[in-house]
Amino acid sequence: MNFVEELRWRGMLHDIMPxxxxxxxxxxxSGYIGFDPTADSLHVGHLTQIMTLIxxxxxxxxxxxxxxxxxxxxxDPSGKSAERNLLSEDVLNHNLACVKSQLxxxxxxxxxxxxxxxxxxxxAKDSVKKRLEGDxxxxxTEFTY
Length: 145
Fold this sequence. Notes:
Helices cover 52% and strands 8% of the residues. By secondary structure, it is mainly alpha-helical. It has a two-stranded parallel ribbon.
């Protein structure tokens, strides 16, 4: 299963530019996800983006997690009804350091621990097979437990 098929299977893909799947199937590609450090912590809303980077890497591509500087001062206006407060440089630097530390811990864990557990091993477990074949499925948390 290629990267795009994996995302479709997981319900993580809504739309895709024409030609993207073909480009990704030709060989290694690079891609990034950007995080605005408007707070000093990641939240559950970031999980889909982080998981996409992990699937991207597992498919043989080169992922990048970017934490914005200037964009963090202004913030993403999406879904906002009023202009956001501008962050001071001190607050921005604090938020950058916190978000960077969280991303590093998550990615270090995946790198250091995840490399010792194959997906084949997990998929061969009867408990995993039964849950995946059932109506309820299995969360990432349970799968990696």
